[in-house]
Design a protein that fits this description.
CATH superfamily of the largest domain: Periplasmic binding protein-like II
CATH topology of the largest domain: D-Maltodextrin-Binding Protein, domain 2
Structural class: alpha/beta
Order of helices and strands: HEHHEHEHEEEHEHEHEHEHHHHHHH
Distance between the termini: 58 Å
Number of strands: 10
Number of domains: 2
Helix content: 40-55%
Radius of gyration: 24 Å
CATH class of the largest domain: Alpha Beta
Length: about 325
């Protein structure tokens, strides 16, 4: 065999090997993930920082929204595929109005110790018990669900919700409204609650409304579009697995996970180090009965027009 032929064969072999290497490496597969710039989105931040998506050969494109409703609308429109942190309330509404769009693969297990909500008053307030809220103005997060949940909670504790005035306030305006006297009490979420108690001048009137109504409470869920799962089952499974790894890391390295919050949100480091992180299930821990209990609670509060079977939300995509 002459030298020219040997050189030619060697060159061909090199090209083939290079092609096989590129083919084996594969281009990263893109997944569009919806998020809110809040504590509940921490699994996304952990997965990004620890390269968990990259290990699964996923290019995660995170799209930020201003509300759970906006994220759900984007998912229905096909603009995103995964929501790792969204309120269960709009998901239940979606299942009632347009069944079979999403699958719940994880949910919170909020309890009184790790809850994300509290009722606050000023330190010098004359409000000492829930009964003292009669005739008062209470600030609540915008939306029908927080208000209806709070009304159900008040009834449970013997307070007529019709005797209370509710003022819907975005998170950014809540503490200033309580400080100025625009409201007399505040039904608030993290990090507003930790911020208020850390800076002083405020005190907790009651702990978690949600945990008091149902403990553990699955109000926060992670969902994936069923159409995406049908078309790309392996990619969908890899995405869910990466988020599961992030949740597992948060359980074993909670301080390190909290430290990521200032990078992705407006939460100052000193507050991020103290905020509560609600326990969240892994994909194999979804509790259908717990989800059903919350759906029943939504119906009893008047938030949804009829009950649905929680199994519909978690059944495997066919």
């Amino acid at each position: 065999m002459n030298k020219r032929l040997v050189a030619t064969l060697a060159a061909i072999a090199a090209l083939v090997l290079a092609g096989l290497w590129v083919f084996g490496r594969r281009e990263p597969r893109e997944v569009r993930i919806g998020s809110l710039p809040i504590i509940a989105s921490l699994p996304i931040y952990v997965a990004q920082e620890r390269q968990l998506f990259a290990r699964e050969n996923i290019r995660a494109r995170t799209i930020t929204f201003s509300s759970s409703n906006d994220m759900v609308n984007a998912l229905v429109a096909g603009e995103i595929e995964v929501l790792p942190a969204v309120s269960l309330v709009p998901i239940v509404h979606l299942e009632i109005q347009d069944p079979g769009k999403v699958r719940v693969f994880s949910h919170s297990r909020m309890n009184s110790a790790n809850a994300l909500d509290k009722i606050l008053v000023k330190e010098a307030s004359k409000i000492q018990t829930l009964a003292d809220l009669k005739g008062r103005r209470v600030g609540v997060f915008p939306g029908t669900a927080p208000m209806k949940m709070l009304k159900t909670f008040l009834r449970k504790h013997g307070v007529d919700p019709e005797s209370v005035s509710f003022v819907q306030l975005p998170a950014a305006a809540q503490l200033s409204s309580l400080e100025s006297g625009a409201v007399d009490a505040l039904f608030a979420y993290e990090p507003v609650t930790t911020t208020a108690l850390a800076h002083g001048g405020y005190r907790m009137l009651f702990g978690s409304v949600y945990a008091d109504l149902l403990e553990p409470n699955p109000i926060g869920v992670s969902v994936i579009a069923r159409e995406f799962e049908r078309r790309h089952p392996k990619l969908a499974a890899a995405t869910v697995d990466a988020l599961g790894q992030a949740l597992d890391y948060m359980r074993t390295h909670s301080d390190e996970a909290r430290a990521l919050l200032p990078k992705f949100t407006r939460i100052p480091p000193e507050i991020a180090a103290r905020v509560n992180l609600a326990d969240t299930t892994l994909t194999n821990q979804v509790d259908v009965q717990n989800l059903q209990a919350f759906i029943d609670l939504l119906y009893e509060s008047g938030e949804i027009p009829r009950k649905i079977d929680a199994q519909r939300l978690v059944a495997p995509t066919q």
